[in-house]
């Protein structure tokens, strides 16, 4: 899928020590792209992830700790990386509660990590992309960037905001070799989602397959999870020449959720 021209480009993937971010990092490293992994922790195992990725794919991979809830950390991540050709804003958290019971601190954290971080990293990364005359900004939004569910006010607001930011980024960067798009996954089988299955099985007194189909994937018509490999492949496509005129838009990887 990669056209070989991606070899040697540098990508920053925020929130990439697990789940979708790590899947995108894996796809990038396999395509010969230098990768900067990130999360807010600074543990040996975070740096070991980078070494493993580097060893397996023969590309430079670094881990840079930075807290995406803090504007200065977001901008420092891009600076410490030495800029980037590809920026994937993926870091995200979730909290579920009715609006009238939603803790204000959780609202602020979700807006900061899931939305404002993308503004700060994009602002820091764009000047280098303008100089290079090439760049890709990929925001990992969600089906919840296009549609809503109850009890997810902050998440839905942040993801809709990310889709709006994606459009503005695309317009400002248009005609300069830079595209900005949002990937909107439905339910993706990440360790986080996997860990919820046993509890759901107990709560609903259902077997694994039934709980996945009837409860977790109730809104996903395919009744199958998307995979981190599929999100990685979508990111690679958005980086390819074939996608050079795709900008300011969303790509749903949601098994038909938003077609309903
Ligand atoms: P995950 O919990 O495995 O990954 C989230 C990543 O963000 C982790 O690496 C975590 O360390 C990092 N992170 C959290 N707070 C951070 C902070 N303050 N600073 C830096 N990094 C931080 O979950 P995931 O499912 O892989 O989610 C990744 C992205 O995909 C999120 O933006 C999420 O909203 C989005 N998404 C996930 C799904 C799904 O079903 N899994 C669906 C749609 C969208």
What would your notes on this structure say?
The protein is globular. The mean pLDDT is 97. The chain folds into two domains: 10-188 and 226-255, NAD(P)-binding Rossmann-like Domain (Rossmann fold), CATH 3.40.50.720; 189-224. It has helices at residues 19-30, 44-57, 71-81, 104-132, 153-173, 191-194, 197-204, 208-216, 228-239; strands at residues 10-13, 34-39, 61-65, 86-89, 135-140, 178-185, 250-253. Helices cover 46% and strands 14% of the residues. The chain is an alpha/beta fold. Bound molecules: nicotinamide-adenine-dinucleotide. Nicotinamide-adenine-dinucleotide (NAD) binds at residues 15-21, 39-40, 67-69, 90-93, 113-114, 140, 142, 185, 187-188, 190-193.
Task: Describe the structure concisely for a colleague.
The protein has 260 residues and is an alpha/beta fold. The protein contains nine helices and seven strands. Strand 1, helix 1 and strand 2 form a beta-alpha-beta unit.
Q: Provide the gyration radius in Å.
A: 18 Å
Number of strands: 7
H/E element order: EHEHEHEHEHEHHHHE
Helix content: 40-55%
Global structural class: alpha/beta
**Per the principal axes of the C-alpha atoms, what is the gross shape?**
globular
The largest sheet, given as strand count, sense and whether it forms a barrel, is: 7 strands, parallel
- Remind me, CATH topology of the largest domain? Rossmann fold
CATH architecture of the largest domain: 3-Layer(aba) Sandwich
CATH superfamily of the largest domain: NAD(P)-binding Rossmann-like Domain
pLDDT average, as an integer? Answer: 97
Bound molecules: nicotinamide-adenine-dinucleotide
Poorly predicted runs: none
CATH class designation of the largest domain = Alpha Beta
Measured by DSSP, the beta-strand proportion falls in 5-15%
């Amino acid at each position: 899928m990669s056209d070989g021209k991606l070899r040697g480009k540098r990508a920053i993937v925020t929130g990439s020590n697990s789940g979708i971010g790590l899947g995108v990092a894996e796809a990038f490293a396999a395509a010969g792209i230098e990768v900067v992994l990130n999360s807010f922790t600074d543990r040996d195992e975070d740096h070991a992830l980078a070494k493993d990725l580097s060893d397996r794919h023969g590309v430079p991979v670094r881990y840079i700790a930075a807290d995406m809830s803090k504007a200065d950390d977001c901008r420092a991540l891009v600076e410490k990386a030495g800029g980037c050709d590809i920026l994937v804003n993926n870091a995200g958290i979730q909290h579920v509660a009715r609006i009238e019971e939603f803790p204000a601190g959780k609202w602020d954290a979700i807006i900061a990590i899931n939305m404002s971080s993308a503004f700060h990293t994009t602002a820091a990364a764009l000047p280098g992309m303008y100089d290079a005359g090439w760049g890709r900004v990929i925001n990992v939004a969600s089906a919840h960037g296009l549609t809503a569910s109850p009890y997810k006010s902050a998440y839905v607001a942040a993801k809709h905001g990310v889709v709006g930011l994606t459009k503005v980024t695309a317009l400002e960067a248009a005609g300069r070799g830079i595209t900005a798009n949002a990937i909107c996954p439905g339910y993706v089988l990440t360790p986080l989602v996997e860990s919820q299955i046993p509890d759901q099985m107990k709560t609903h007194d259902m077997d694994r397959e039934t709980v996945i189909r009837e409860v977790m994937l109730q809104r996903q018509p395919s009744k199958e999870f998307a995979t981190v490999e599929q999100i990685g492949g979508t990111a690679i496509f958005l980086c390819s020449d074939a996608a050079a005129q795709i900008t300011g838009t969303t790509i749903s990887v949601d098994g038909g959720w938003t077609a309903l």
